[in-house]
Amino acid sequence: MAFEFIETSKQSTIGLIELNRPKQYNALNRTMVREIVEALESFDRDEDIRVIVLSGRGNAFSAGADIDEMAYDDTVKLELLNQFADWDRISLIKKPIIGAVQGFVFGGGFELALSCDMLIAAEGTEFSFPEVTLGVMPGAGGTQRLTKLVGRTKALEWIWTGNRIKAKEALQYGVINKIVQREVLMEETLKIASSISNQPPLSIRLIKESVSKAVDYSLYEGMQYERKNFYLLFSSEDQKEGMQAFVEKRKPQFKGR
Ligand code: HXC
Question: What family, per the record (predicted)?
Fold first, then answer.
């Protein structure tokens, strides 16, 4: 697939998506968001791909939505555009998405990062919701996802002030999984991606689904959901293989069925 604002490639069982507008710090215009979603969906359907890695070329992951594109929008135009329908499709991706971020992770860029399942950040990465300084507010899930992640108090502080949150603080609040040197950001992310891609894909898939439900469901509903997925895995070949291999004291060969 040919894209204008992103690059995609495959490395073994890992699908790579790179935001490619480095001169504008990967500011997200609407076409670019559409391209990211289409690339995610394409990797999600691709039988050879087990994990997706999302990164940004240059000195920033993304400085947010393209301000030039939306500066003169009005309410009716936004309603008719319904651009967030594209963003909603990200949460339907079944395979793990690991974000590798550096530099500015601002506004819509932060929201895109929060749509990933895991985040690895380079030293010096800064996270921010600067929308308030533009007279608006986050619109692609920022107020919801951040609050569910770090709680109301910190979410309000960060979104009200627009302050830049350093990687260390983001790690402390569970926004990111790990901080690494800039030079090894991709290498370290690929290591994690590849260790996940060696696990049985159906387990990985249903774990993502179940953990995501913990955010929206009550504990009781979430437990029922988890149980169904647990039972479901017992009809997979990989469950037979995984447990048989343990009994036979050998390494399992997972097939994703
Ligand atoms: C459009 C942007 C941009 C953005 C940077 N650029 N961020 N263009 N939209 N969000 C462009 C600049 O216009 C400039 O283009 C080039 O990238 C380099 O940026 P500079 O400002 O010259 O660089 P620097 O001085 O290093 O400052 C970097 C920065 C600053 C701190 C990241 O660019 C900045 O504050 N950007 C805006 C960040 C922001 O407010 N994001 C939230 C957007 S609202 P030229 O052509 O002049 O070289 C949002 C809402 C999401 O995300 C809603 C859901 C979709």
Answer: Belongs to the enoyl-CoA hydratase/isomerase family.
